[in-house]
UniProtKB/TrEMBL annotation:
PANTHER family: GNAT-FAMILY ACETYLTRANSFERASE, SPERMIDINE N(1)-ACETYLTRANSFERASE. InterPro entries: Acyl_CoA_acyltransferase, GNAT_dom. The lineage of its organism: Bacteria, Pseudomonadati, Bacteroidota, Cytophagia, Cytophagales. Residues 19-177 form the N-acetyltransferase domain. It comes from Aquirufa aurantiipilula. This is GNAT family protein.
């Protein structure tokens, strides 16, 4: 299987570089072990440098649309964003984002990175729908996704334990309207 070419994406303030082993750092490990960062994720709190190396090696060897979010002005890696997995047959991708560096929270970087990735996926990858899962209590994330145009498609009641309690999970999606409304031509 040939390697996928993941382009560098740029916005006004950010550079999104394909994730790889070079982004492995103690600071990145610290994000994954910071309760404020991982409280609404399905993993975290027990990461080691070696575990992160193993994780990033997988994406270095088998690239997918997965980028490190870097602030241009300071060349600082502040988080990651990806669309994985992608279902080519149905033209659907699963969105995920981690804003690890808390100094950069609330400054619009997640939205800026998300717009660039969503546009890339609709215009260059040919996706017609992008989905995501989010814990309902993660109010900042839900507001971000709604501001991007994601809509709730379903609710998984008491889906898991997050921030020390059972929480509902939302399934949300955004469509490329042109592709979503065209008839599919079967072969």
């Amino acid at each position: 299987m040939s390697k996928v070419n993941i382009p560098i994406l740029e916005t006004e303030r950010l550079k999104l570089e394909p994730i790889n082993i070079e982004f492995c750092s103690e600071e990145y490990v610290n994000w994954l072990n910071d309760i404020e960062v991982y409280q609404y994720l399905d993993n975290g709190g027990d990461y080691t440098y070696e575990a992160l190396q193993e994780y990033l090696t997988k994406y270095t060897e088998n690239p997918v649309p997965f980028w490190a979010i870097i602030v241009k002005e300071t060349n600082t890696h502040i988080g990651n964003i990806k669309i994985d997995p992608i279902n080519q047959r149905n033209q659907i991708g699963e969105y995920g984002i981690l804003m690890g560096d808390k100094k950069y929270w609330g400054k619009g970087y997640a939205k800026e990175a998300s717009i660039a990735v969503i546009n890339h996926c609709f215009k260059k990858l040919g996706l017609r729908k992008i989905t995501l899962g989010v814990i309902k209590d993660n109010i900042a994330a839900v507001k971000l996704y709604e501001s991007l145009g994601f809509e709730i498609e379903g609710i998984y009641r008491l889906h898991g334990i997050y921030a020390g309690k059972y929480c509902d999970a939302l399934r949300m999606a955004i469509f490329d309207i042109e592709k979503a409304t065209n008839e599919v031509k079967l072969k």
